[in-house]
Amino acid sequence: MFFFLCMFSITDLVLSTSTLPRMLCLFWLGAHDIAFDACLTQMFFIHSFTAMESGFFLAMAIGFVAIGHPLRHSTILTHACITIMGIIVVIRWVAFFSPHPILLKQLPCCRTRIIAHTYCEFMAVVKLACMDTGATKSYILSMASVIGPCDAVLVAISYAFILRSEFRLPSQEASFKAMGTCGSHVCVILVFYSTAGFSIFTHRFGKHIPAHIHIFIANMYFSVPPFLNPIMYGVRTKKIREHVLRTLMVKVV
C-alpha cells in the first residue's frame, strides 16, 4: 500500500506544481504570457502525469482486491509485482503522450496566440494552428477516449470485487469500517474520472456547451483531486496519520 501511495503522491505533486503556480500567477499577478516551449513542457507534464494518475488508481484498485485474500496477500502483491505495475504505468505514459509536444511543435501558428484556459490545454493549443489538424485531434482524442474509459471500467470492476469481499467479512463492525474507507476512495475516483471524462467528451461531442463551463470543470479537474487525495489516502491511513502527528508533536518542558 505504501509503495502505491508513494507513486501516487509523486504524481499529485508533479500535477500540482505544473498547474497551480501558473494559475496563481494568472489570477493574482495578471501574468498572462507564457513562452511556447514552456507551454509545451507544461502540457506534456499535465497530460502524461494525468494518465499516470489514472494508471495508479487502477494499480491501487487491483492491489486492494488482493486484500480479499489475506492469507495469500503477501504472495500476490510482492515487491516485484508492484514494481512491474509501476513500470507498465510509466511505459504507457511515455508511449502515448511523448508525441504531444512533438506534434504541436511542428504546427504553424498564424492565428491569435490567446487560449481561454488557465493552463496549456492540448486541444486549445491545437486550435491556434492555421492548417488542417484533423489527424492530430483524432489521434489525441482517440488516445484519451480509450485510456480513460478503459481505466475507469477496470477500476469499477476492481472495486466491485472489493465490495464483495467486504460484505463477506465476519464482523459487521469491520465490514462497516472497510466500506467507509472504500467509499471515500470511490468519491475521489469519481471526481477524477467524471471531470476528466467531461473534458474529453466535450471536445468530441459537446460543441454547444458554454466555454466557461468547460474551463471551470477543467480547473476542478486539476485542483480538487490533488486537494482530496492527501486527505483520503493520507489522513485516513492510520500509520501515516500517527507518524505525522509524532513528527509534529512538540515536547513541552
UniProtKB/TrEMBL annotation:
The keyword Membrane applies. Residues 1-233 form the G-protein coupled receptors family 1 profile domain. GO terms for molecular function: olfactory receptor activity. One of its GO terms (cellular component) is plasma membrane. Keywords: Membrane, Olfaction, Receptor, Sensory transduction, Signal, Transducer, Transmembrane, Transmembrane helix. SUPFAM superfamilies: Family A G protein-coupled receptor-like. Its main location: membrane. The chain crosses the membrane at residues 40-64, 76-95, 139-162, 182-201, 213-235. It comes from the Eukaryota. Residues 1-16 form the signal peptide. It is found in: Membrane. InterPro entries: GPCR_Rhodpsn_7TM (IPR017452), Olfact_rcpt (IPR000725), OR51/52/56-like (IPR050402). One of its GO terms (biological process) is G protein-coupled receptor signaling pathway. It is a multi-pass membrane protein. PANTHER family: OLFACTORY RECEPTOR 56B1-RELATED, OLFACTORY RECEPTOR FAMILY 52 SUBFAMILY X MEMBER 3. This is Olfactory receptor 52D1.
